[in-house]
Amino acid sequence: MLLVYVAYVLVGSVIMTAETVTSAQGDMGQLQEARMRTMINLSIDQVVDNTVYLNVTNTGGEPISDFTHMDVITSDGVGEPLYHHFTTGALSSQTWQNIQIVPDYVHPGQLDPGEVLTLSVTDTYRPVWAQVITPNGVYSTVLV
């Protein structure tokens, strides 16, 4: 009886492990596919003192909606680059803010293909370059 019980536990563990690995591989495939369909183009809208207004155009086929995991990196060319995270409140030297998405008709609040996100980011000094990184790791860089 003990032998049957041990065999049952071992077979159950092997089946559960195989299901977990298969599920994880499927999820990784979906993430990789979404990354391949994501493309952005970055351009300067305007620069006011130490604040840069950037236009992020979604030129790919994948919507970008998770702004909390989208980062902006700026550098003044002298010190270490600054990493800015998304905020809906007041700007600080470590945050960027969503100004507007144009046109924002299809899915309000997310950056659909063909739409342009205007964002602002403030650095300690006037930045010389900026980089925007999407939640799935796709990035674009522009000289200010």
What does this structure look like?
- By secondary structure, this protein is of the alpha+beta class.
- The chain folds into 2 domains: 1-37; 39-143, Immunoglobulin-like (Sandwich), CATH 2.60.40.
- Helix content is 25%, strand content 37%.
- The protein is built from 1 helix and 8 strands, in the order αββββββββ.
- The chain has one helix spanning 2-37, and strands at residues 40-48, 51-58, 71-75, 82-87, 95-102, 116-122, 129-133, 139-143.
- An 8-stranded mixed β-sheet has the order 1-2-6-5-4-3-7-8, with no helix packed on it.
- β7 (129-133) and β8 form a beta hairpin.
- The radius of gyration is 22 Å and the shape is elongated.
- The model has no long low-confidence stretch (mean pLDDT 88).
Q: For the residues shown, what is the average pLDDT?
A: 88
CATH top level assignment of the largest domain: Mainly Beta
Q: Which sequence of SSEs, written as H and E, runs from N to C?
A: HEEEEEEEE
What's the alpha carbon Rg, rounded to whole Å? 22 Å
Instruction: State the helicity in percent bands.
Output: 25-40%
The count of DSSP E runs of length 2 or more, i.e. the number of strands, is: 8
The low-confidence runs, each spanning 5 or more residues with pLDDT under 50, are: none
Strand order of the largest sheet: 1-2-6-5-4-3-7-8
- Share in β-strands: 35-45%
Figure out the total of helices.
Answer: 1
Count up the domains: 2
The CATH architecture term of the largest domain is Sandwich
CATH topology of the largest domain: Immunoglobulin-like
Largest sheet: 8 strands, mixed
Given the helix and strand composition, which structural class is it?
Answer: alpha+beta
